[in-house]
Write a structure and sequence with these properties.
Layout (H helix, E strand, L loop, with lengths): L1 H6 L6 H4 L4 E5 L2 E4 L4 E4 L2 H4 L8 H11 L13 H15 L7 E4 L4 H16 L4 E4 L8 H5 L4 H5 L8 E4 L4 E2 L2 E2 H10 L10 E4 L2 E2 L5 E2 L2 H13 L3 E5 L23 E4 L12 E4 L19 H16 L2 H20 L7 E5 L2 E5 L5 H13 L2 E2 L1 E3 L5 E4 L7 H24 L1
Parallel strand pairs: 3-17, 5-6, 5-9, 9-12, 12-13
Antiparallel strand pairs: 1-2, 2-3, 4-14, 7-8, 10-11, 13-14, 15-16, 16-19, 18-19
Helix pairs in contact: 4-11, 5-11, 12-14, 13-14
Length: about 425
């Protein structure tokens, strides 16, 4: 560990919560260099929806690597890119009746968010963006400007302008948030200019597993239509099947103007980001938003394999089955511990909100879970929401084991508090 502490920057983060050296991983378990196994309820912050070292995808990648195929292609035409585009269109877009063009951005999600913001402003010739309280969209300056976390925003070192933050979901302290936005847009004395776009996560992951109501999402889509505003859905963490359906917005029956994908779009945890945009919005000049690694060929191969894997194993049905298990477990075994505990979730992303017990309680539970062989992170205001986000391919056995570790850890920490 001295190597990391001595030579690696202080900016390192997750390793502080999980202070061991990992060496191997398979599906839903991470192994240290000394062989200890940890059930993974974190899944690479959502980049490993299909598990660690998925054999179906790994074999495709190995075949590609050993055949001297193109490894770096900028945005040139390649077989790997063509096959992914065709597969994504045939397996995802066409069956859902979606008409999007694909823009390949730099390898991280924040770069695709930047592209979406730039394009929205270019199309509408307006500067402003509406974002939501509790939002997380990335750490580069444009993405950070629409991220609400105060401490993260302070790290920018410069003003983060041209963004108006709106309370998330249908009501906020009794206020109708759609009506509030309507008033901002129509009142000549609101002091707020019409934005180019409204961007949101339909499930706020880092914000504490906050779920937007279907009706509110439909009303938001209508608001954008009524006022000539683009609707951007950030599906970086909760897309690619995390909530069951491939896109998180499908449950509401809406069609965003742009969709941002990253994390698990590559299938294997390889760097990749993607912006989906309605064809009429594609007014880019060649090279106007580019990046040296926007053509990650291995990611294209993994992404195509992931789409095939989803269909082969009927993954959406698997997620629904596991969703039912987690929901029942949390209602029966966790919420009953304390009536003030709040449970929120969808698909295989769930939050145990222990805000009333404080940050120290949540941190101690997460630390104790790790000591018992479970990797779980925290989210939300002051990190007081325990975040359950395993691979979609997790076995029911390990899903049950992990949930029971949470139960045991919460009971133990609660017992310690009572003793004190």
């Amino acid at each position: 560990m001295n190597t990391f502490e001595t030579l690696e920057s202080n900016v390192r983060s997750y390793c502080r919560s999980f202070p061991v050296v990992f060496n191997k991983a398979k599906n839903d378990v991470l192994y240290t260099e000394t062989g200890e196994g940890y059930i993974d309820f974190f899944a690479g912050a959502g980049a490993l929806n299909y598990g660690h070292n998925n054999d179906f995808m790994k074999n495709r990648l190995l075949d590609y690597l050993t055949s001297d195929r193109i490894m770096h292609g900028l945005d040139m035409y390649t077989t790997a890119k063509q096959e992914f585009i065709e597969s994504f269109s045939e397996r995802i877009l066409q069956p859902k009746g979606l008409n999007y063009k694909l823009q390949f951005c730099g390898p991280t999600g924040t770069n695709a968010v930047e592209a979406a913001l730039k394009l929205a402003r270019k199309v509408k010739k307006r500067n402003g963006i509406f974002a939501f309280m509790g939002a997380f969209h990335g750490m580069s300056l444009g993405s950070l400007s629409i991220t609400s976390n105060t401490s993260m925003r302070e790290s920018a070192g410069v003003p983060l302008n041209n963004v108006t933050f709106i309370p998330y979901n249908s009501t906020f302290n009794g206020m109708d948030t759609i009506l509030y936005m309507e008033q901002l847009l129509t009142d000549t004395h609101s002091g707020v200019e019409k934005p180019a776009a409204i961007i949101l996560e339909t499930v706020q992951a880092e914000g504490g597993i906050n779920i937007a109501d279907n009706e509110w999402l439909r009303d938001l889509r209508q608001l954008c239509d009524d006022h000539d505003i683009l609707l951007i859905v950030d599906d970086i963490q909760v897309g690619c099947g995390r909530v069951g359906s491939f896109f998180s917005f499908e449950r509401a029956g809406i069609v965003p103007d742009m969709v941002v994908l990253s994390k698990s779009i590559s299938g294997y945890g390889l760097p990749m980001s993607l912006l989906l945009l309605k064809p009429e919005l594609d007014i880019w000049s060649p090279g106007e938003h580019n990046g040296t690694f926007r053509g990650n060929q291995l990611a294209f191969v993994g992404a195509k394999a992931a789409l095939e894997f989803r269909d082969t194993v009927e993954l959406e049905a698997q997620v629904k089955e596991k969703e039912a298990f987690v929901q029942q477990f949390l209602r029966e075994h966790i919420q009953t511990m304390d009536p003030l505990i709040k449970i929120r979730g969808l698909g295989l992303i769930w939050g145990i909100d222990v805000t009333h017990l404080g940050e120290a309680f949540a941190k101690e539970v997460a630390t104790l879970c790790f000591s018992k062989g479970l990797i779980i992170e925290r989210a939300g205001r002051n990190d007081t929401v325990l975040k359950i986000m395993p691979a979609l391919t997790i076995t029911l056995e390990n899903l049950s084991k992990g949930c029971n570790i949470i139960k045991e850890s919460m009971a133990q920490v609660t017992s310690n508090l009572v003793t004190l």
